[in-house]
Amino acid sequence: MPSGVVVLTDRLAASRGLERVIAGAVAGGVRWVVLREKDLPRAERAALAADLRAILADVGGTLIVAGPDPLGGDAVHLPAAGPYPPPTHPLVGRSCHDATELNRLTTEHYATISPIWPTKTKPGYGPPFGVAGLGSLVRASPVPLLALGGVETPEQVTACVKAGAVGVAVLGGIMRATDPTETATSLTSAFKKAVTPKLSKPGTGSPRSSTATKDEGK
To answer: How far apart are the first and last CA of the chain?
Structure first.
């Protein structure tokens, strides 16, 4: 199941060639990538999928293909428009933009919900849900949600996790990054920190523990 920082591809926005950007993101901790590039002929897109799978294979990562055709894999991410019912691949996600689309989900394993913040990639969608709206949608959703749209900073990642998202889907923040590895590292670190339970400091705890310590000293 996708979680953490999930990267969506856009070769036209990539700062230094798509494969190099994805390799950099993977070096920074990314383990899930959604291949878009729907304008490419199938053969070219399938070759690109094979290249990206090879990069992810080194770290046990997973490539998800946008659209119903998994291009030789077994994971797809579908648009809100269809197909319905979804295909029976081992991993199926769907893009959603409101509660109505979330309520239409059936056998999908996860969904993205967008936009959380204003986005340069798809400015037509909106208005942005914000963190509060994300939290409401997470509580109402039948499947785990990835927060999408305008996620570019560690603080935004933290806010999305606290709102209940299982991760964030990032496009421009990684694709346009001067240093994809550095950017991915900061975002994945924020996610890990947000989901890691805070341990009590030494010497603190329940009233009973302090009482027990005093008793032991008698």
So the answer is: 53
Q: Looking at the whole model, is its pTM more than 0.85?
A: yes
Average pLDDT over residues 102-113: 98
Place of tokens 């990642």: 157
As to burial, measured by CB atoms within 10 angstroms (0-12 exposed, 13-18 middle, 19+ buried), residue 128 is middle
Cβ contacts of 100 within 8 Å, gap of 6 or more: none
Q: Would you say 46 and 72 are in contact if contact means Cβ atoms under 8 Å apart?
A: yes
> Which of 113, 193, 114, 199 is CA-nearest to residue 154?
193
Every domain of the chain and the residues it spans: 4-216
- Residue 214: is it exposed, middle or buried by C-beta count within 10 angstroms (0-12/13-18/19+)? exposed
Residue in the structure block whose two tokens are 């659209």:
67
**CATH assignment of 4-216?**
3.20.20.70
Query: Distance between CA 105 and CA 91 in Å, rounded?
Result: 14
Residue 59 to residues 64, 118, 148: CA-CA distances in angstroms? 15, 32, 24
pLDDT higher than threshold 50 for residue 1: yes
Closest-CA residue to 115 (of 104, 134, 128) = 128
What's the rounded Cα separation, in Å, for the pair 114 and 169? Answer: 9
Amino acid, single-letter form, for residue 168 = V
